[in-house]
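Sample intake sheet
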Amino acid sequence: MLAEARRVLPPEGALPGGLVAEQKADGFRALVFARPGSVLIQSRRGSDLTPAFPDIAAAALALGEVLILDGELVVPHRGRLDFPELQRRARRRGRSAAEVAALHPAYLIVFDVLEAAGTERLARPYRERRALLEDLFARDVLGAPFTLCPNTTDRGTARWATLAGGNWSDYLAARRAAP
């Protein structure tokens, strides 16, 4: 499902199951279909982005697990997320794509797992899918260039994040440096 931008947070208790807020990154929404020996990176509109993001494709191939991940493709550059650089990356193919991937690596900020171990998870509650996603990161099944999208159930934190924005580049750099 697509995220909804809101100027005001819903009132306490307005959402069944409670409020979980995630910050929107300036990138391309993408699904990563990973299977042993096969990977597809698909845009929100169904375009095949796999050839343009060989770094993400290689990482997905190396997972060794059947996963469908939902997230946001981003490219940090010069201390911030660089949407124009992401657009340039999306147009590259072949050797050119590999060269630019080495200079400006992409990340997938993952906020949902839609399938794991051959079991579709869409009908499961968000909290279960989130727990599974967090477990995949905790067990180091997922790591850079995949990064877990931070979220919060605290209204004050969510309000601050929507007003102040956030520095995704710093967050991604910290994730890259983490053991």
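Comment: The longest strand covers residues 107-116. The chain is about 35% helix and 25% strand.
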